[in-house]
């Protein structure tokens, strides 16, 4: 008989200890790479080891190398944490061990994701027919959305990219803001379009794409090219907008962008990794005005829905090109013919875990109002952080419209030194960046547990490190 209780009990006890100590845990790793290798490495095991002992050894070995990104004082990147319901559902997802690629492989996983997809579409205020795919993160959400875009703009030009590839296809141009996220460029590389397909569009001082610059670029080069039949056609065009700049949190004017782009028969894809969640807040929804007019969207539930990794989400207003870009047929597969959801029609994976289950649990536990409260509170905490730091020695570089705070401490050298000292000090953790050619500290507030005490304690630590650097 298999002995489950020992290793699972060990894992539960250690998980609970970690979570209960998280609020006061040092926010940063406590071990070097060498120390971690010494704790975890050694020769390849030749024989079996008791499972409970394995779990104990692993937990002890990694503990000092963990970056406590679930802490309310972790402000690096836009990571978020994990709510109790989503974490528990993630454990069950692992226990059930369902292959969520096909309805036939797990009817339960398929239905959970179908229900969750409908809830997400309603939360974001998108067209009711929008298709949804659950992917690893925002990178693959952008990839999938742009794959659907690639299919459709080439189909209009008479080219079947899934059948014929890109050799000989009409060239696609991609217009994107100069301050776009790098996952857009990477997705275009994956898709075979290359970064030279990008036409960078000028942005304002907050990193927002200028709608007038987009219009000028499209009007200046209407983009006539030769179609598959040798006839002149509009050049296949994709416009990438951004809901939430990764440094400033600023939003492109999406309504204007959609109007301009659609007048030129372009597909509009919105990278809303964290910013799309502003749509759930009645007080912040104006930031995404016109979002429902786009053609595809990418976001990440690990960010503001605070579910465990990995939880990317792609949404598409046009299910047909979405399925055409992703779906596969094989004689040995049992694919449903009665309208049930086969998730491999909507994401680039084949076999995968049922990652929609934690998203379902988070939405069920929080409801629309609870999700909005997290977004609103993080916004308020970001503004509080900016107010606490704003002194004669600290420059806040951005308008705090959402959850991002961008600060600078006089010059590049001082700024970088403060960032390093704060990370080493351990009260809180935030990352550095370069904004408009200058070094800056980038503070991202996206954890559901972050409160005023976390902000005040962290701001005091930043100012203390600044004083020490200046001293």
TrEMBL record:
From what superkingdom does this record's organism come?
Bacteria
Locations of Low complexity compositional bias? 40-49
Annotated region described as Disordered, given as residue ranges: 29-49
**Post-translational modification N6-(pyridoxal phosphate)lysine, affected residues:** 303
Q: What is this protein called?
A: Glutamate/tyrosine decarboxylase-like PLP-dependent enzyme
Query: A Gene Ontology molecular-function term?
Result: pyridoxal phosphate binding
Instruction: Tell me which family the UniProt entry assigns to this protein.
Output: Belongs to the group II decarboxylase family.
Tell me which Gene Ontology terms the entry assigns under biological process.
Answer: carboxylic acid metabolic process
Basic and acidic residues composition bias: residue spans: 29-38
InterPro entries membership? Aromatic_deC, PyrdxlP-dep_de-COase, PyrdxlP-dep_Trfase, PyrdxlP-dep_Trfase_major, PyrdxlP-dep_Trfase_small
Q: Name one Pfam family in it.
A: Pyridoxal_deC
Q: Which UniProt keywords apply?
A: Decarboxylase, Lyase, Pyridoxal phosphate
What's the cofactor?
A: pyridoxal 5'-phosphate
